[in-house]
Amino acid sequence: MKLLLLIFCLTISSCLSDDNICPSNEDIKPCSCSIGVDNRPSISCEGLESVDDLKKAMKGMQDFKFSNFYIEKSNIGILPSDIFSDIEVRFMNILFTNLTSLSESLNMPAFLGLESTLEYLQIRDAFITEETPLIRISLSHLKKLQFLQLEGNVMPTIGNDWFESGPYRLRQLYLMDTYTKKVGSHAFSSLSELRRFSLTGGSVSEIVRDMFPSQATYLETLDFSNNKISVLPKDIFSRMPSLNEVFLDNNDFTTIDEVAFAQVWGQLSHAYFYGNPLNCNTDMKWIYKYRLPESLQGYCATPPSLRYRYLSNLTLTDFLN
């Protein structure tokens, strides 16, 4: 009987643990809490008119643990660096919310207090004007962060200092529709665990191999779509043994360089070149001497005899003339 009582008490304690309890919605207005499909509480804050609304709501969340935290369609301005210091969050999403800074100063790390819990961070359409761009981000203290997506934010320059000290466990980095013009020569070199990388929707014209870890052992995907790149460094794909996807759509390439791609061509499953002014002359004949990627996408712009022909439909005989 005592054993059954002990088991019952432990079961009740588990059900009532802080891990799956919401704070009172009355205490966290104008935010709300609900239990998600993972049986853990999630916070939704929508339509906040100022950072004061968020501060008020946070007072009712102290010491609670949340799976997801959403801030949507709000006007925050400066996000205090320690505003989440009294809670735990695994997945943070700030969407369609006006921000001018992620902390009180450029030297102040953002999201203080979430060092040992935050695994996923998405900031979308928050820094949307050239007057208030995202100038710098410091996340090296977020030791568990594995996923970072910055989408639709004006980020003119991504400097070497953005990720120079990590976060070292970061595996997926998506910088999408960034309006970026310049990237530091070593910008992502510290991210040795990186698997998937995107830098799209800017006007970047030059990339170098040193942007990435010297041994990019785990890197599987590179996406530089929608930029202004016309030439790849000869060594750009060196020391990338796991690379299997390359997306270079809507750039300014006139050819697919054999020296650059020879190191990885045989291991690629996806190679995308849509929207490039490709000149399908004899310089591209090499492609059809090897196994083609499972998905080779793009088409010729010139010569006239091959215009609009899809790369995947060409053969060596198309290059005889």
UniProtKB/TrEMBL annotation:
<feature type="signal peptide">
    <location>
        <begin position="1"/>
        <end position="17"/>
    </location>
</feature>
<dbReference type="InterPro" id="IPR032675">
    <property type="entry name" value="LRR_dom_sf"/>
</dbReference>
<dbReference type="InterPro" id="IPR001611">
    <property type="entry name" value="Leu-rich_rpt"/>
</dbReference>
<protein>
    <submittedName>
        <fullName>Uncharacterized protein</fullName>
    </submittedName>
</protein>
<keyword id="KW-0732">Signal</keyword>
<dbReference type="GO" id="GO:0005886">
    <property type="term" value="C:plasma membrane"/>
</dbReference>
<keyword id="KW-0433">Leucine-rich repeat</keyword>
<dbReference type="InterPro" id="IPR003591">
    <property type="entry name" value="Leu-rich_rpt_typical-subtyp"/>
</dbReference>
<keyword id="KW-0677">Repeat</keyword>
<dbReference type="InterPro" id="IPR026906">
    <property type="entry name" value="LRR_5"/>
</dbReference>
<dbReference type="InterPro" id="IPR050541">
    <property type="entry name" value="LRR_TM_domain-containing"/>
</dbReference>
<dbReference type="Pfam" id="PF13306">
    <property type="entry name" value="LRR_5"/>
</dbReference>
